[in-house]
Write a structure and sequence with these properties.
- The chain is α+β, with helices and mostly antiparallel strands.
- It contains 16 helices and 14 strands.
- The chain has helices at residues 13-17, 20-29, 46-54, 64-67, 69-72, 82-96, 98-120, 127-144, 151-166, 172-198, 204-210, 220-251, 253-261, 266-276, 308-311, 356-373; strands at residues 32-35, 40-43, 59-60, 124-126, 212-213, 216-217, 282-287, 291-293, 296-298, 303-307, 378-379, 387-388, 394-395, 399-401.
- A five-stranded mixed β-sheet has the order 1-2-10-7-3. Strands 4-14-11 form a three-stranded antiparallel β-sheet.
- β12 (387-388) and β13 form a beta hairpin.
- The structure holds protoporphyrin IX containing FE.
């Protein structure tokens, strides 16, 4: 019996508990899975996902008008096309690459050291909640030029905005909560924008406030949408990747020992973590014309979800795809954080992640700091590993014990 006939659903508790268990069946038996409750198609084969993400005429980001714009308070980068997309994307890219990135690595180091300090002597911390989440928000606030002391408020609003974008079905109450978060975040940002227009600095918000597009400065609405875009896009996948990296290394002690001996292997360990367990599991697009995949027609107007986790484990793209192996010959580490990456964890095509190099620097810097400190690192007694999320996915917590650092 095919998966299509078994009542299988990506909205089921079974799938949510361990999506990777269904990837092979989906790719082989139901590669164009239709989900009637949300009237959407789920593509799981590598070639199909790549086709959707690179054929910008046939598959657009139009879905974001309803999926993201209400909480972003305006159009986000991924919705833009042509010259507008190129110009605005360039402003954001410049803030996260080249000389700017070198300055940020120092700030990343300082942020990590400050957040870690209270836990080192204890010999125990939750890598997700004690460190990863505050760290990823702190670092993003630094780049944007926002006050780090506001991180808890910003993190709370951020999680409401992210919930709106990443939920496949929202109750009216949750929708209201998400909209409240977005409105409060907007109210917090407006006076900052006004101040940066008068008195710009070196930060990304100042650059957005002073940039011109077609000779016209960006409106407050445009600037707010881009700030929220960067905040949400940057913080959530980075903290998940860091926690997943440590989980996989702890679960593969020989590979952990190799990385500890040779930190140059960290880039491969991060790339393999991204391939094996992409923090962004789904990328939505809208079909602009009837398109055929594996003999099934996806009609014009349909919402299509690219299943990045399933595509990254397609045996047509990677050998022994269900094995975590930082030495795999088909990983292509050097390309893994560029537009030529073989894995699809940063997307591909026009809208591929602008923060890939920054994410690598962020995770590599912190992991290089943590690994020598976390002697004999292991899960804390009684710890039970749990992951959550269909759209973005990562550990709920990761409680680790290590030799206390005096
Ligand atoms: C491991 C960390 C990260 C992962 C896995 C990740 C993943 C992704 C993915 C899958 C996309 C493509 C979305 C699409 O095609 O619709 C994307 C786009 C984007 N990412 Fe990342 N991201 C990460 C870190 C970051 C960081 C640190 C930033 C900070 C700038 C960032 C900013 C963006 C932006 C602005 C876009 C939209 C680009 C466009 O539409 O032109 N991301 N990211």
């Amino acid at each position: 019996m095919s998966v299509a006939d078994t009542g299988f659903s990506v909205l089921s508790e079974d799938f949510a508990a361990a999506p990777h268990r269904s990837f092979a069946r989906l790719r082989e038996q139901d590669p164009v899975h239709y989900e009637p409750a949300i009237d959407s198609y789920f593509l799981s084969r590598y070639e199909d996902v790549k086709r959707v993400l690179t054929d910008h005429e046939a598959f657009t980001t139009e879905t974001l008008v309803v999926r993201a714009e209400p909480v972003m308070r305006g159009p986000v980068l991924a919705q833009m096309t042509g010259a507008e997309h190129t110009a605005k994307r360039r402003i954001v890219v410049r803030a996260f690459t080249g000389p700017a990135l070198q300055d940020q690595i120092r700030a990343i180091h300082a942020n990590a050291a400050e957040l870690l300090a209270p836990f080192l002597a204890r010999g125990r911390f939750d890598l997700v909640n004690d460190f990863g989440k505050p760290f990823a928000i702190h670092v993003t606030l630094d780049v944007l030029g926002l006050d780090r002391r506001d991180w808890q408020r910003v993190a709370a609003w951020h999680s409401g905005v992210a919930e709106f974008i990443t939920s496949l079905a929202l109750t009216p109450e949750r929708r209201r909560h998400c909209m409240d978060c977005a409105e409060q975040l907007e109210a917090y940002l407006l006076p900052v924008i006004e101040q940066r227009r008068r008195n710009p600095g070196d930060d990304l918000i100042s650059k957005l406030c002073t940039a011109e597009f077609d000779g016209i400065a960006m409106s407050d609405r445009d600037v707010i949408a881009l700030i929220i875009n960067v905040l949400v896009a940057s913080a959530e996948p980075a903290d998940k990747t860091l926690a997943l990296l440590f989980k996989h290394l702890i679960d593969h002690p020989e590979q952990l020992a190799q990385v500890r001996r040779d930190p140059d292997l960290l880039a491969a360990a991060i790339a393999e973590t991204l391939r094996y367990t992409p923090p962004v599991q789904l990328i939505p697009r809208q079909a602009e014309e009837d398109s055929v995949f594996a003999g099934t027609t996806v009609p014009a107007g349909a919402t299509v979800f690219c299943m990045i986790g399933a595509a990254n484990r397609d045996p047509g793209a990677f050998t022994a795809p269900d094995t975590f192996d930082i030495h795999r010959p088909d990983l292509g580490t050097a390309r893994s954080f560029t537009a030529a990456a073989q894995h699809l964890s940063f997307g591909t095509g026009l809208h591929q992640c602008v923060g890939a190099a920054f994410a690598r620097a962020e995770i590599e810097t912190v992991a290089a700091m943590l690994l020598p400190l976390l002697d004999q690192v292991r899960y804390s007694p009684g710890f039970r590993y749990q992951e959550a999320g269909l759209y973005t996915r990562g550990p709920l917590s990761l409680s680790l014990d290590f030799t206390p650092v005096r």
